[in-house]
Design goal:
Radius of gyration of chain C: 19 Å
Shape of chain C: elongated
Helix content of chain A: 55-70%
Largest sheet of chain C: none
Strand content of chain C: under 5%
Structural class of chain A: mainly alpha
Structural class of chain C: mainly alpha
Number of helices of chain A: 17
Chains: A mainly alpha (about 600), B mainly alpha (about 100), C mainly alpha (about 200)
Oligomer: heterotrimer
Largest sheet of chain A: 2 strands, antiparallel
CATH superfamily of chain C: Cytochrome c oxidase, subunit III, four-helix bundle
Number of helices of chain C: 7
Number of strands of chain A: 2
Largest interface: B-C, 52 and 50 residues
Chain lengths: ~600, ~100, ~200
């Protein structure tokens, strides 16, 4: 029985503190915002299909570029990753929920309101046109006098807050709530990747928080942090942004690496090759990820010492990354491989991410980067790692864990179609961009001249985008169809290796009826296959030994999130703003007290 | 139920309280030293003395408060590693920033 | 039964550290990067005093600042004693020390207010020059943390007055204490880096 589907309707979803329901909320929101990000992409690719088109004005195009990047990163990838963190972390470590259930709900509502605020810029007709990284001093009051940039600034500030709160939550959950016997080196690799991701989040987010406060101060009060005329520096924005921004991209890729590390062993019927190396490499990538940020700034005139340092540090990251790639391949090698849709996506991750990594290594070299920076070569690189990498990996996760979330399997037939449409569409769109970039086509330009020789690949690229769109529609259909009529999955449809497969699909509200006890990595597998022989799988009992203590639902997280949004909204109004923000602050304080004094 | 080692009619302080009060006195003395050193005009613009000496004093104050008042000294190793690891990482990252930044 | 006593029945954790305490430590660790950014930005703009405008050397008053530092240090001492009293279930001492912490916070904020008014009077404000902007951003952010902490400790004190003997929650007090001590530690760094090093 789907014990967490709404029993009392909308209110139960608005007040839920159950990590599984919150995971679904995050996932649904991610796909909602994906529609925006996808349409923005299709509009851009249509505008670029032929030279000198004016289907879309330059200003509108700049708005699309900004919103597409911002939406895909902050409103699609991050919440989708959060959906997996939410749903899977407690299940894979044998815990009943996360460490702070109400904070978990708060993170979701704050994120949702931040995403809605950012997209409200469309309704207000003031879409930010500054790129997803909003370089100074385009963001100054002089060059952007309207509120468009404020939507971006406050939107990011708010969703950043949501991620910060949830990162602390998951970090404590992983450190403190593992079941008996699960030492750190017996955790699934997805949990290791998730844990490192949380560290990256709570260390890098404060930096962007301050940078955003500074640009707000520049715009609202006239300070000169990023204004050269007042003694500030535009490059400082870039430093601060990328000290956050680089760890951010590792935040986007590590969870997908974790997911792939779960999928490949299951569908190769082999344990993951080199577990300790996978742990060290994920830690090394996380740690080194803090020391490479200025490789986004090679063309700003850092000087030879800084350029050399950041170049070397960037190249060093390829070592642990390469080790992971070899280990995934070695896991496949000699395995009994099943090409389920989940596995297809996971394998494609390895291939596509490798291609993206190779282009990345190229522009880790400053002299080469001088040629590639701000061209489509960079666009190719990051789409290969974020789309070919993260997105494909996450789709793998969706096909793999959908039965656990919903009790039904996604259609393999439709899945295969989606996979191939995505692979073909994605590669058609982005592989040619390597050529276009090396041939000098600049990025973030709304059109291009006809005599550059870029027409052919732009047409190919745009066709690829339309193919992908078809794949996306197929996926949407697959989800709806499978939710209604998909084949029932049972607890362990894939013959999995980790704890979540010992539970009903979907799991009961309290997760584990009997507290699990593990002895080794992939313990569930070893409970099913004792001395090489398959035994009757010891699924979790359907009734708990003692009544579980479930945290009560609460509306304070929703109220507090509203307060945060009101606080941010005040910045849009010059005279009445202080009252709106003040009221928001009051709501926050009231919600904080209400929260502290209720029975959790 | 008040414990016997801090009973209000027992004039003796518990060893823990004594330790906290000693540290309190040390913190005050260190702050006074910092103040008086600052007041000496010939030292206060001399980086060779000021940076290491006052830096060391504030580091001692920091370690005392973090170690003793925040009880980090008696917490599991993991927490000590997380805190001091981050403190070191903070210094490293921000030193790199200062060295790479356009204004320094 | 009071909510905070129901929540975490001393449940077993892998690290041996209570969930909420570990969470506060992680928040503290995260805030190291927050203040790290602010302090670094200040250091970068130490010499950004536009000619004709006042800099720190012109307006800082080391006596006031040292008194602020002293007050915050003393409030930290009061905090550990408050936690001690809470663990020993000594109600009156607990309440006394808790309110003393809050009072210390309030006095510190009072000193900040006095100091900042003096600065504004001398045309040293948020937008005067980049040294000033960076200074106010750093100390303002710290002051906000002190304000939140003062509110928090006051709430604990008032809750204790209302509920009396039924309310002893050493974990809650310890978490507030960790936050408060961290705010003090940040000030220790600010006192040295901003004020004591002003002539360098």
């Amino acid at each position: 029985m789907a014990t967490y589907l709404p029993k009392t309707g909308i209110l139960s979803w608005l007040t839920t503190v159950d990590h599984k329901k919150i995971g679904i909320l995050y996932g649904a929101s991610a796909f909602f915002f994906l529609i925006f990000g996808g349409i923005e992409a299709l509009l851009m690719r249509t505008q670029l299909i032929l030279p000198n088109l004016e289907l879309i004005s330059a200003q509108t195009y700049n708005g699309l570029v900004t919103m597409h990047g911002t939406t895909m990163i902050f409103l699609f990838l991050m919440p989708l990753i959060s959906a997996f963190f939410n749903f899977m972390i407690p299940l894979m470590i044998g815990a009943p929920d996360v460490a702070y259930p109400r904070m978990n709900a708060l993170s979701f509502w704050v994120f949702l309101f931040g995403g809605l605020l950012l997209n409200y810029s469309f309704i207000a007709g003031q879409v930010p046109q500054v790129g997803w990284f909003a370089y100074a001093n385009l963001t100054s009051k002089t060059y952007t006098p309207d509120h468009s940039v404020d939507f971006w600034i406050l939107g990011i500030q708010i969703v950043g807050l949501a991620s910060l709160i949830s990162s602390i939550n998951f970090f404590v959950t992983i450190l403190n709530m593992r079941c008996k016997g699960m030492s750190l080196l017996k955790m699934p690799i997805f949990i290791w990747a998730s844990m490192i991701t949380q560290v990256l989040l709570f260390l890098s987010l404060p930096v962007i928080t301050i940078a955003l406060v500074m640009i707000t101060a520049d715009r609202t009060f006239g300070t000169g942090f990023f204004d050269p005329g007042l003694g500030g520096s535009v490059v400082m924005w870039q430093h601060l942004f990328w000290i956050f921004g680089h760890p951010e991209v590792y935040i986007l890729i590590l969870p997908a690496m974790g997911i792939v590390s779960e999928i490949i062993p299951v569908f190769s019927r082999k344990p993951l090759f080199g577990y300790p190396v996978m742990v060290y490499s994920v830690t090394a990538i996380g740690f080194l990820g803090f020391a490479v940020w200025a490789h986004h700034m090679f063309t700003t005139g850092l000087g030879p010492w800084a350029s050399t340092f950041f170049s070397l540090a960037t190249m060093m990251i390829s070592v642990p990354t390469g080790m992971k790639i070899f280990n995934w391949i070695s896991t496949l090698w000699g395995g009994q491989i099943r090409f389920t849709t989940a596995h297809l996506f996971a394998i494609s991750f390895v291939a596509m991410f490798t291609i993206g990594g190779l282009s990345g290594i190229m522009h880790a070299s400053p002299p080469i980067d001088y040629h590639q920076h701000d061209t489509y070569f960079v666009v190719a690189h990051f789409h290969y790692v974020l789309y070919g990498g993260a997105v494909m990996g996450l789709f793998g996760g969706i096909y793999y864990w959908f039965p656990k979330f919903f009790g039904r399997l996604l259609s393999e037939r439709l899945g295969r179609w989606q996979f191939w449409l995505y692979m073909i569409g994605f590669n058609l769109t982005f592989f040619p961009m390597h050529f276009l970039g090396l041939q000098g086509m600049p990025r973030r330009n709304f059109t291009y001249a006809p005599d550059q020789g870029w027409e052919f690949w732009n047409i190919v690229s745009s066709i690829g985008a339309y193919i992908t769109a078809v794949g996306a529609l197929l996926f949407a259909f697959n989800v709806i169809y499978s939710l209604l009529r998909g084949q029932k999955s049972g607890p362990d449809p894939w013959d999995g290796r980790t704890l979540e497969w010992s539970l009903e699909s979907p799991p009961p509200e309290y997760n584990f009826a009997a507290a699990p006890h593990v002895n080794q990595v992939d313990d569930w597998w070893h409970q099913k296959y004792v001395d090489g022989k398959k035994v009757s799988p010891p699924y979790q009992p359907t009734q708990p030994d003692s009544p579980p203590h479930l945290p009560n639902p609460s509306f304070w997280p929703l109220v507090l999130a509203i307060g945060v949004t009101l606080l941010a909204t005040g910045f849009f109004f010059s005279t009445t703003g202080i009252y709106i923000s003040g009221f928001g602050a009051l709501v926050i304080i009231i919600a904080a007290y209400g929260w502290s004094y209720e029975t959790p | 139920m008040p414990r016997s080692d801090i009973s209000s009619h027992d004039k003796k302080l518990s060893p823990i309280t004594k330790k906290y009060l000693i540290i309190c006195v040390v913190l005050v003395i260190l702050t006074l030293i910092e103040y008086f050193v600052f007041k000496i005009e010939t030292i206060r613009d001399n980086p060779v003395i000021m940076y290491p000496f006052l830096g060391a004093l504030s580091l001692v104050k920091l370690v005392l408060v973090v170690g003793s008042y925040m009880h980090l000294e008696s917490e599991p190793r993991l927490l000590k590693f997380l805190f001091f690891g981050t403190a070191i990482l903070t210094v490293v990252i921000f030193t790199i920033l200062m060295l790479s930044s356009p204004l320094t | 039964m009071h909510p905070t006593e129901v929540v975490h029945h001393h449940k077993q954790t892998n690290t041996g550290v209570d969930d909420r305490k570990l969470g506060m430590w992680i928040l503290i660790i995260s805030e190291c990067f927050l203040f790290g950014t602010l302090i670094t930005n200040f250091l970068i703009h130490k010499k950004s005093v536009k000619p004709g405008t006042p800099g720190g050397i012109d307006v800082f008053d080391i006596e006031i600042t040292t008194w602020s530092t002293f007050v915050l240090l003393m409030s930290s001492v009061a905090m550990v004693l408050a936690l001690q009293a809470c663990k020993n279930r000594a109600l009156r001492p607990f309440q006394f020390w808790t309110f003393l912490v809050a009072l210390g916070g309030l006095i510190f904020l009072g000193f900040q207010y006095y100091e900042f008014s003096h600065f504004l009077h001398n045309d040293f404000g948020f937008t005067t020059n980049l040294f000033a902007s960076s200074f106010f951003l750093l100390t303002g952010c710290h002051g906000l943390h002190v304000l939140v902490g003062t509110l928090w400790l006051s709430t604990i004190g008032i809750t204790s007055l209302i509920r009396g003997d039924r309310w002893f929650s050493p974990v809650s007090v310890e978490i507030a204490g960790l936050y408060w001590h961290f705010v003090d530690v940040v000030w220790i760094v600010i006192f040295t880096v901003v004020y004591l090093y002003i002539y360098l």
